[in-house]
Amino acid sequence: MIYQRSSALFAAAQKVIPGGVNSPVRAFKAVGGDPIFVKEARGAYLYDEDGNRLIDYINSWGPMILGHAHPSVVDAVIQKTRKGTSFGMPTQIETEIAELAVSMVPNIDKIRFVNSGTEACMSAVRLARGYAGKDKIIKFAGCYHGHSDSFLIQAGSGAVTFGSPNSPGVTKGTAQDTLLARYNDLEQVEQIIESNKNEIACIIIEPVAGNMGCIPPEKEFLQGLRTLCDTHNILLIFDEVMTGFRLAKGGVQELLGVDADIVTFGKVIGGGLPVGAFAAREDIMNHLAPLGPVYQAGTLSGNPLAMAAGLAMLTELNSTPGIFKSLADKTEYLHKGIEKALQHHKVVHTINRIGSMISVHFAKDKVVDFETAAHGNNETFKTFFHGMLNHGIYIAPSAFESWFITDALTYKDLDDTIEAVNKVAATL
Ligand SMILES: *Cc1c(COP(=O)(O)O)cnc(C)c1O
Fold first, then answer.
1. Residue 242: CB within 6 Å of ligand 1?
2. How confident is the model at residue 154 (pLDDT cuts 50, 70, 90)?
3. Is the peptide bond between 18 and the residue preceding it cis, with omega within 30 degrees of 0?
4. Is it the case that residue 287 has pLDDT exceeding 70?
5. Is 267 among the catalytic positions?
């Protein structure tokens, strides 16, 4: 395939935008080459500036779970746009989407809308600290909760108690309040809690990890965290920015039957517009301004276009019977096909899958945390990525990302993808 125009557009972008991109994951730094510029997208396909058609397995990093330019989402946005795009005053649609979200997700009475997943997680942790009257938080190496300071803590190996910043600009003071643990290692969490008695406000976790490739929690891990939190009076925050409204109507809480105290959302909840949200029981949410002392605000929060897109998306998901099963079935079909192709060509790999999230780790051993994810062979991944791209299949340009399955994918698309894997695997 030819990417002449994309490369020219990238050259122009680099002159006025740092690295030519507005979010680093879009650059091809990990795989080499120039990023592809999108012209438009429909259903399961991207059409780039050079006229190539690509089967899309990123789907805007998750939001487009029903495919691109879904008619009901597009219509909802167009209709709203004609009536004015922002007021900074309450609108009825904010209550409508809040009512629907609260009805779909377990354990939440109230929800507040923000503009991104980053904002949602940042605000959820502030709320947890304000509610609990404690400062420290526990996060897991390899989990991503957006780019606010408390979360940009180095993924250190071993029993790391105090985090250190992995981005310049994050102060030592902030880093000290974030304690790091290994994903799927309950014992380590217990030790951290023991050595920080009565200081920990909350544990924040991706209940199914998606930001070190897809890593589902081991059996009993989440329930173990729940029990620890109850015992030690710590709030449990499920960051469901990726998994919310994707793995089930009620996200991981519903799928795996474990209750969180605060839940954060993003991606799917905005239907492709900039939306995030955080939600909890009433007594926790009532600590937020203007009812309570914990401050949180946003000029464009609850923006009517964003709410219209989100409401249309959640309405589709809520009213389409079997949608999550259909997504999971397609993902399983893809898993089996890829597995067979890689085995046939004797490519060392481990595939992780849950619901409509899947990732191919080019690693020999089971991938259960950041360390084992990092064992994957990045050279193999690079060749795989570019090989798939040459066959018109677009996966994330990094080995540490999940693939997102959309319901717009047909079984023919999946077969084409498996066939591409088969051809690429022969070259690995
Ligand atoms: C994407 C993501 C975020 C950040 O959301 P943004 O909208 O990019 O700020 C936070 N947490 C998780 C689990 C995510 O996948």
1. yes
2. low
3. no
4. yes
5. yes
Q: Is 144 a catalytic residue?
A: yes
User: How far is it, in rounded angstroms, from Cα 198 to Cα 137?
Assistant: 11
Best of 22, 23, 121, 205 for a ligand 1 pocket test (most atoms within 8 Å of beta carbon): 121
Cα-based angle 166, 362, 212 (whole degrees, multiple of 5): 30
State if residue 270 touches ligand 1 by the CB under 6 angstroms criterion. Answer: no
The two tokens of residue 116 are: 């991104």
pLDDT at position 164 over 50: no
Alpha-carbon distances of 205 from 21, 229, 263, 270, 380, rounded to whole Å? 28, 13, 10, 21, 29
How does pLDDT run across 326-371, given as a tens digit for each residue? 999 999 999 999 999 999 999 999 999 999 999 999 999 999 999 8
φ/ψ of residue 294, rounded to 5: -80, 115
Q: Is 110 labeled as catalytic in the residue annotation?
A: no
- Asked if residue 266 has its Cβ within 6 Å of ligand 1, the reply is yes
> Which residue do the tokens 């209550």 mark?
95
| pTM greater than 0.85 (yes/no) | yes
